[in-house]
Amino acid sequence: MGRGKWIAVLLLGMLYLTGCGKEIDPPQAEWTLVQETAAVLPDGTRVSLWQSNENDYDFYRLPDGTALLTVSGPGTPEAAAAEGADGFDTLSEDAKRAIQLYFDEQGTLYDLQAELEAAYTDYQESGAEGWQERTVTQETMPVASTSRIISFYTTVHLNGKLLQDYRLGAVFDRETGKKFDLWSLFSVPQETAMERLLDGVTDPALFSELAAAFQPERVIFFQDHVEVDFPDALLPGQEDGYGFTIRYDSLEGALESWAIPTE
Questions:
Q1: Please, which residues have CB within 8 angstroms of residue 24's CB and are 6 or more apart in sequence?
Q2: Three-class DSSP category at 219
Q3: What is the phi/psi pair of residue 261, to 5°?
Q4: Do the Cβ atoms of 170 and 145 come closer than 8 Å?
Q5: What spatial distance separates the first Cα and last Cα of the chain, rounded to whole Å?
Q6: What b/e sequence results for 13-44 when a residue is b if at least 16 CB atoms lie within 10 Å of its CB, and e otherwise?
Q7: What are the φ/ψ torsions at residue 221 (nearest 5 degrees)?
Q8: Which tens digit of pLDDT belongs to each residue from 102-128?
Q9: How far apart are CA 181 and CA 157, in angstroms?
Q10: Is 221 in a helix, a strand, or coil?
């Protein structure tokens, strides 16, 4: 091989190595203005709604572009499930459609306008330099299942902190996707089922207060226990709310056997 050919090969090799060593910049997010005036704050400030091609979040911004609030969900129930429970994707298409329709109709549990106003107040108090945008996330995931039922748990987090007011449970027929009424999961009358759920409450006054404030959607079926939740909004006498867990063996004879998850 002649000298000229050697030089050509060497140059091509150098170009190849240079190209291989070059870092490739990650693709830039593409932003879309969905709604120019998605909300109006008390002082007349308009908030716009943006979305990105990188995720399905909603981004609310002030007129100067400041990110005020990022919202995730509600959406499709999470494919992932709590340990021991079957996932949403294990259900039939008919069941998934029925369950998705239920959560679509349930919609957002929190007040979006109130969260935007609270974020704006924080922004004004902290100043532009110290501001860190707020986040609200609503998620639903399967947390328990048997051959007949599947239980879902919906939560709302504000800046990563769980909001007790928005912890809800729902149990569905895993074949049809029809939601079960709580009391239909018990083999005893509703009054007796209520007594069994509140059996650990020994204070008569507290028992009466809890029974009066009881909401079926606050009962959450997990794979190894049941949780009953009473946020402070339901119990004026309890500053931090009230809640407790119940082992399934404590509900034997009251809860239908097909509604009790097995490990």
A1: none
A2: strand
A3: -65, 150
A4: no
A5: 73
A6: eeeeeeeeeeeeeeeeeeeeeeeeebbebeee
A7: -90, 110
A8: 999 999 999 999 999 999 999 999 888
A9: 26
A10: strand
CB 105 within 8 A of CB 170: no
212 C-beta neighbours (distance < 10 Å), count:
9
Tell me the per-residue pLDDT of 128-167, one tens digit each, with 9 for 90 and over.
Answer: 888 999 999 999 999 999 999 999 999 999 998 888 788 8
Does the structure show a pLDDT above 50 at 10?
no
Tokens of 235: 């119990």
Where do we find the tokens 């569905």? Answer: 172
Q: Are 250 and 199 in contact (CB under 8 A)?
A: yes
Neighbouring CB atoms inside 10 A of 214's CB total 16
Residue 260 has pLDDT above 70, yes or no: yes
Helices (H), the chain: 3-21, 93-106, 112-130, 190-197, 204-213
How many residues appear in the chain?
A: 263
48's tokens: 């716009």
Task: Give the pLDDT confidence score for residue 232 in this predicted structure.
Answer: 78
